[in-house]
Amino acid sequence: MPRRSDDRRQGRGRPRRGRRPVRSAAAFKEHARATVTALAAQGDGVAETEDGRRLFIPFTVPGDDVDVLIGPARGDGFEARVLSFARKAPRGEAFCPHFETCGGCSVQHLTEADYRAWKRGLLVQALSRRGLALEVLDLAAVPRDARRRVTFQAERTGSAVVLGFAERRGLRIEGIEACPLLAAGLNGLIPSLRELAAAMLRPGERARLAAARVEGPEGPALDLVVERDREPDLAAREALAEFARTSGAARISWRDAAGAVEPVAQISPVTAAFGPASVELPPGGFMQPTAAGEDILRSTVVAGAKGAARIAELYAGAGTFTFALAGIAHVHAVDGDAALMRALGTGAGRSGLGGRVTAETRDLAARPLLPGELKDVDTVVLDPPRAGALRQVEQIVQAPGVRRVVMVSCNPQTFARDLRVLVDGGFVAGAVTPVDQFPYSHHLECVAALTREN
Question: Which position among 102, 105, 179, 410 bears the catalytic label?
Fold first, then answer.
């Protein structure tokens, strides 16, 4: 769902804050041999020692016999590192030279069949923990090289600049020349983004560069948001202007210490096409990571809302689903981001849908729609951030006129929690669709439609 930035969805912080603790080699001391029996939620192999301690061992698969060094406590077990394999079970072949070092992908070592079963199983397990025995469809996948937005990290170390992604469970940046999950247009930017970082950073400084290729009616537009601890000085502004001139970027923006995003250079509008409407995204406007995944989500949501008379779309963003839903019934779109709501309303008017779409700015986590405000609504569509929509679904079950709910989530755990509330409130859930927009990671989108009789 559209958001002003990746940070709201993934909970990422400033360039030098909120990073994962480093696990030094000295922390891994005790030797053990173990057999991997399962895969954990983040893709690590799971094994038990002879004395019953649970181990999380990265880059292993069920059936592996491994000699490991046991390290720090983690959750209900301990981290461990492989010293050697006594026996290797069948596995896939990683397709990226940075796998096992870069923190982006965690399970390239699985076979395709094992990967799909593991990823679908994340949703099955989350539902099961809430006592929900629902039908879970096969994993809906997107092409591997389909990512149209990415956040690179950059650091100057002496005279060199490294641009890439944070290493697995560490602070170091793994420099890359290309990422096989990115669309070609984004991989092609890496050399020029490295040059931009070199012109902006002092020794020891870091920056984040979030690039997105937004598909609009006039073709793709490059939208870049830059972030570092210091505010932009003359050198940074000159470097950004030069990047705008040479890269063909439509817009370059700067995120300040408070998280506000302001354009530094606006060459042309950044317009996203959402079905029958076009929306000019505000600076830092979030979009789904892949066009294919967006299409899967949109078609599934529309199918779930079929037959609605009046729809409340909550956490609507810039309108990923809004305008397709407007082909079914009147849509009242609600989101806490005022800029996104203005963009959605303007897009509706320009597309001739102003009479079928209304927009409201409201923090639904703090002020969920109450049953009285839902009295004229028979269908609610929700696409909340990772924290879910617990307070809102608690109000929905008390709104007797709501007969249908379509729930979208990027977090299987909060998705299952919120579905449990709806089911306990009399709703019956149909089949659940897992959508794999983040291949070879543990991140997963989920969609379900629920109905309730009088």
Answer: 410
